[in-house]
Amino acid sequence: MLLKHSAVQRLALSMGISMLLASSPVTANGPIGDHVNQLQTHLPTYAQEVDWLIGKVDGMVGTYEAKGKGGVNSEELIEHWEAVDFHAAIETNYVPVYALIWQSLFGVKDGIAKEKPVAVIRQEQQKLEQSLWQALGAVKLAAQYQQQGKLAKRGNDNQLTEPNQILAEIKHRLDRVVAKAAEKLPQQATDIVHNTYLNLFEGLEGRLIAEDAELVESLEKDFNVTLPLALKNQSDVEEIRKVVSTMQVKLDKASTLLQQAQSQSRDVF
């Protein structure tokens, strides 16, 4: 049920390059490891880990098909994923697909735990394989940018001063919120929301209010009510993704407004 490697290239080309250029903090699961600052060197290892993970999942689903729920320990799925270096490589470079991997992992795991039909679990397995290959494509692309010096060093905080840099980082952290929701870590997701609002968005509010006060009010509600409430209620990941996507559209509008204001200011002088 593996995808052809050529499919990875098509998937990678469709990804937003801006996300790969954004800075990334230390992961919530602990130190990310220096390998993420030497992506090109570790690409063969990442590819081997993807193959290994896919084989482990396929073997587990096959055992479930033959022996039922009692024949497998589905908790091992999460342990395998968290054990490989590729876990940190994708989390620090392309968070949206990282969230999809977690969703599919839990789709397989929960499917086994709830004794769902094998056909249903195989569908989740296929989604997982697609996400893993897509993730490998994203990391390969990130490795190219890293070699060109266009990728921020991972694990270090960047001093963000320009509004567009700050807004790009806010969007990136909102993607992490979706990822943590997919990991079933709502408190960590909520902490990211609060910290992002306090440490990043609040600093832009003054400038943005002058351009569109209603937009600021709407985003304040999203940060402090809509998104935290969805996380508290442990809403479906797709619902949380919709909230985040709506917020990111608003942030794009904010970026455009601030760019226009900056351009007009330069024209005056």
Outline:
With 269 residues, the protein is mainly alpha-helical. It has helices at residues 5-13, 17-21, 39-67, 75-83, 86-91, 95-113, 118-147, 163-182, 186-209, 213-232, 237-268.
Describe this structure in words.
By secondary structure, this protein is mainly α. The chain has two domains: 5-147, Four Helix Bundle (Hemerythrin (Met), subunit A), CATH 1.20.120; 163-268, Four Helix Bundle (Hemerythrin (Met), subunit A), CATH 1.20.120. The chain contains eleven helices and no strands. Helix 3 packs antiparallel against helix 7 (118-147). The protein is globular. The N and C termini lie far apart (62 Å).
For the largest beta-sheet, the strand count, sense and barrel status come to: none
CATH topology of the largest domain: Four Helix Bundle (Hemerythrin (Met), subunit A)
Shape field? globular
Order of helices and strands: HHHHHHHHHHH
Task: Classify the secondary structure makeup into a structural class.
Answer: mainly alpha
Give a count of the beta strands, DSSP E runs of length 2 or more: 0
Strand content: under 5%
Mean pLDDT: 84
What brief labels describe this structure?
269 residues, mainly alpha, Four Helix Bundle (Hemerythrin (Met), subunit A), 2 domains, 11 helices, globular, disordered N terminus
Topology:
Elements: H1 5-13, H2 17-21, H3 39-67, H4 75-83, H5 86-91, H6 95-113, H7 118-147, H8 163-182, H9 186-209, H10 213-232, H11 237-268
Helix pairs in contact: 1-7, 3-7, 6-7, 6-8, 8-9, 8-11, 9-10, 10-11
